[in-house]
UniProtKB/TrEMBL annotation:
<dbReference type="InterPro" id="IPR036851">
    <property type="entry name" value="Chloroperoxidase-like_sf"/>
</dbReference>
<keyword id="KW-0575">Peroxidase</keyword>
<feature type="signal peptide">
    <location>
        <begin position="1"/>
        <end position="17"/>
    </location>
</feature>
<comment type="similarity">
    <text>Belongs to the chloroperoxidase family.</text>
</comment>
<keyword id="KW-0479">Metal-binding</keyword>
<dbReference type="Pfam" id="PF01328">
    <property type="entry name" value="Peroxidase_2"/>
</dbReference>
<keyword id="KW-0408">Iron</keyword>
<protein>
    <recommendedName>
        <fullName>Heme haloperoxidase family profile domain-containing protein</fullName>
    </recommendedName>
</protein>
<keyword id="KW-0349">Heme</keyword>
<dbReference type="GO" id="GO:0046872">
    <property type="term" value="F:metal ion binding"/>
</dbReference>
<feature type="domain" description="Heme haloperoxidase family profile">
    <location>
        <begin position="101"/>
        <end position="354"/>
    </location>
</feature>
<keyword id="KW-0732">Signal</keyword>
<dbReference type="GO" id="GO:0004601">
    <property type="term" value="F:peroxidase activity"/>
</dbReference>
<keyword id="KW-0560">Oxidoreductase</keyword>
<dbReference type="InterPro" id="IPR000028">
    <property type="entry name" value="Chloroperoxidase"/>
</dbReference>
Amino acid sequence: MRPSTVCVAFLASFACSFPWLKPEGIETLLNHPEAQAEITKRLTEHEAIHANQRETRQLNTGLVGGLVTLLDGTLSAVLDNVLGLIPTNEAVKGLKRFPEEKHPYQAPGPTDQRGPCPGLNTLANHGYIPRNGIATIGQINAATAAVFNMGADLSSLLATGGAIDGGDIISQKMSIGGADDRVGVLNGALNKVLGTPSGIAGHGKFNEGDASATREDFYLNGDNISFKPELFKQLHQQAISKGNGTYNVDAIKEHFKNRYAASKAANKQFYFNLPSSAVVMGAYYFIPGFFSNGTIGAGGIANEASITSFYGAKPTKEGQWSDPELTYTHVPERIPEQGWYRRATPMTIAEAVGGILDVYLYALPPMGGSGADQSWVVGPANIPNNPQAFSCFLYNAIYANFPSELFNSVVLVETVVNALSGLIAPGYKALGCTVNFPDATGTGVSQYDAWSKMYVGDAKYKATGSGWYKTT
């Protein structure tokens, strides 16, 4: 059964049903050696299974009928573990294929840091950042651009936040997991005096928060790093019910809505407040945004094969990915072995904030945190509902948030402000935001109180899980 024959028969029936399957995309798919081999294998298996139904199939236009059955709905056609890894011709333009020979996969060793971010774990497992999981802002910027096509403005924001809040901003170094004595002033020589930076997994920091997609809240069992198979199973169920078999934006929004509700109900110190809550919601959007095979919206597919590989979610039964009761175990994260294409265009802050806002407006999660008396302490009021205004609001929340957290970064206010100004402000200026944060040079942080109340809210100091809860 030749792929060219399949192509001719298939195009007429399915061009309208699946708009992303353009003729040139089908041609690329069917001329791809991996796809050719897999299609032949699947059709052979299909013929054997349905041999006793041959007459019925022939009445349904023979070859086309068989292929329609094989690629029923959008499940196998769009999402199959192998076929789904081959983007359309439209998506292939400007993309880069992975994995690369010069960056082989290697499981982490006993002293290597790994954390709650599957993307950073993947980069370390392939050596795009140091395999020990101790990386600088510059190394993270370069690696996220090379593998995920993350824009420099977005990577600088996230990496700088990690260095300020959980690392050493002076050396611009951080652990992608938990606390590590290899990080700190003078390479950690003063950690016994100043304290060991928490790493990006430090609870209540900029890059970590409750209601994660696949990690448990820190308060529940003290572990916000380990992958939880049950939570991924819930994400998988949403991919089937809401994403039509893909881990698309609809699926991740529903998963976030459910995770927020469950986390808030179980966690007596639940904290979900800007700016860290925006990073949490951004991590949901990053699932299809970065892990899709190709660029979402341009033929890219957030299928089971690519998402499970980046999350290290190993199904307990192969070939049963359409089963909503499928369970998973965890293996180290890696770039899909079958072949995966990076998104074609960089994801900038503008796209990321648009994705965050989409997640937020779908679930409308209250911002704030649990108080000491089990009350709810509200976060900022009047959160904008358009991407540009929300970008500027988030930018101001970041500036209002960091200077009060100096106990986490063992550096002076002036150093923090300079780092924020040099590494983060340019991206927000490009969005048209006014840079008018308070001048903290050589002073304390008291003048940030009014600023933080506007952009972060009372929960900053009064929510027990905030990380800087005031007991007096």
